[in-house]
Amino acid sequence: MLKSGASPARKTPSAPEGNPVARDNNRTQVVAGFLRQIEPAAPGAEPAIAEGAAADQTPSQDAPAASEKVRSNAAARPAGEIELKLLVDADRMAHFNAAPVIASNARNKGSRRHLKSVYYDTPDRALRRNGLSLRVRQSGARFVQTVKTDAVDDPLRRGEWEANVASLAPDLALALPFIPEKLRGHLEAQPLEAVFTADVHRHARMIDLPAGSVEIAFDHGVLTAGERSVPVSEIELELKSGSASTIYEIALRLAEHGAVKPSIRTKSARGFDLAADTPPSARRPGKLRLDPSVTLDEAFSTILRSCFLHLLQSLPAAEDGRNPEGVHQLRVSLRRLRSALDLMRSVGALSNLDALRSEAKWLAQDLSAARDWDVFQLETLPTIARACPAVAGFDALGRAAASRQSAAYRKAHDALGDRRCAMFLIGLGGWIETRGWRNDVAAEDLGQLSEPAVNFAQRILSEQYAKVLKRGRRFKSLSAAELHRVRLATKRLRYLSEFLLPLFADRKSARKFSRRLAALQEELGAFNDMAVTASLLDGLGAGPDSAIAAAAIAGWQARASVGVQPALRGTWRDFTAARVPWSSQG
Q: What angle do CA 187, 192, 198 make, to 5 degrees?
């Protein structure tokens, strides 16, 4: 573990007197030592960094301490960055620097800097656990402290606050106003320690396109935590003005020039995983927040951003391969995305939907075998082996399954490294950012997008709920194939509910319905897993040394399927008895 050579400074400098000089002729204001940069939006475009933040002014050390003034006046005012990374091979960095989109649109040859950064946290990693990072970066004789937040609702947008400090030691007092109040006492009581360092050489250039201006930074270097290190080789695209779609436009043209991997994983996330010697985490999707008054157009944007964020967050763990939850969450994110695209079909024919859905389906299919073998190796086989200690052959069966699992992971890794995957992700991000569905919707259907989303939600949820009930008629006598059809309809209703029930979040029935729907999907999923296991065993071709174990698994699950039926029927009854939250009586 790295240790800071100096204790953190506690002094809180106030803002310098006088008016700071605005960068690039943009309006600026100083707030308690932090410089908020407010950039004008390009005509017809959304504000790019309506509350950007990059500290260029050094706070006066002679001014009186102003921690209370910081808390009352700054109040952690919103600031942020809009950024996408492209991971590239180190020996191809110069190749991308000469790409036509850069050569034709760069303002000049740019600047080169050597950046040394130290990332800090408490011994119990309180900042990390709460989605925050604290960094001090040295560039020449200048030291800049930065507080950042993880992406919450949007894959490109993160909170960011910067201030000049005296050295590589952090100034906690300057950071506190931008940290949730519940953590401030903990941070004041716990000593900050250096967790890892980043040593990066950066070549930064400004790219100007009609839709906006982007700083493109070619970073190569190393992250170091104790005896461990990992290389850094990435291209950062950070919006400086105009529309965020400019980032995707440049990324797409770079992807056409050579192999890149879109990423939102920060150096901070990589460094903390390195220090802990753990694989990338795989998060479940966050809960959607939809105001009941939003339009359908706004609801579509929020839903798709959530799906895309979940997809990008799942990629590092899936590519790494050590955490089986990575492939699982990536598959879930692709199913959610396909459900969201299907949902949009209800508005009318959208020309790009089928192409995007097809690419999502292709990627999901190349991941499915890896997930199926994960479940077999980590859950099914060890559970039954422990329950049947007298049965021989489980070890041999496990070795045969491990070979198939490795082959499935190679297939998944190849798909994720395919340029087709990169083009799909960048194209999807650009389509979402520009709300490309507006251009696809027929003129006579455009009016639907401006209508309240809650009306649309009532209709769609009612239709899918009715489909589930129809497929579940005479539930007791349904065959395995018919139960599979119920499961598919239930899964679709589950995703639609996750997307649309936030519009009815003030109703207790929404929470109750969601719980019962989730329970039904889980029971049906367990029943389906047994069918998947049978298929895996058939394809495995168990040899003489594992045939008895394979037969034991098949027999165990056949018996279990009989026991599942009563519980499944009870879960079905509970589900059908739940009041639907979108009804007028809900």
A: 130
The structure tokens listed for 3 are: 């240790």
Hey, what are 352's tokens?
Answer: 């790009």
Q: Cα–chain-centroid distance for residue 549?
A: 40
Per-residue pLDDT of the chain (586 residues; tens, 9 = 90+): 343 333 333 333 333 333 322 333 332 332 222 333 323 333 333 333 333 333 333 333 333 333 333 333 333 334 689 999 999 999 999 999 999 999 999 999 999 999 999 999 999 999 999 999 999 999 999 999 999 999 888 999 999 999 999 999 999 999 999 999 999 999 989 999 999 999 999 999 999 999 999 999 999 999 999 999 999 999 999 999 999 999 999 999 999 999 999 999 999 999 999 999 999 999 899 889 899 999 999 999 999 999 999 999 999 999 999 999 999 999 999 999 999 999 998 887 677 888 999 999 999 999 999 999 999 999 999 999 999 999 999 999 999 999 999 999 999 999 999 999 999 999 999 999 999 998 888 787 788 899 999 999 999 999 999 999 999 999 988 888 899 999 999 999 999 999 999 998 667 888 899 999 999 999 898 888 888 998 999 888 778 889 999 999 999 888 877 766 788 899 999 999 999 998 753 4
CA distance 41 to 144: 27
**131 — alpha (psi -120 to 50), left (phi > 0) or beta?**
left
Output the pTM of the full model: 0.84
Query: In whole angstroms, what is the distance from residue 348 CA to residue 128 CA?
Result: 44
Do residues 348 and 304 make contact, with C-beta atoms less than 8 angstroms apart?
Answer: no
Integer Cα distance of 134 and 159 in angstroms? 12
Is the separation of the CB atoms in 50 and 159 below 8 Å?
Answer: no
Eight-class DSSP state of 226:
T
Beta strands in 246-388 (DSSP E): 261-263
HSE-CB for 336 with a 13 A CA cutoff: 28
How many CA atoms, within 13 angstroms, populate the side-chain half-sphere of residue 206?
A: 8
The span from the CA of 63 to the CA of 343, in Å, is 57
Q: At what angle do helices 547-577 and 508-540 cross, to 10 degrees?
A: 160
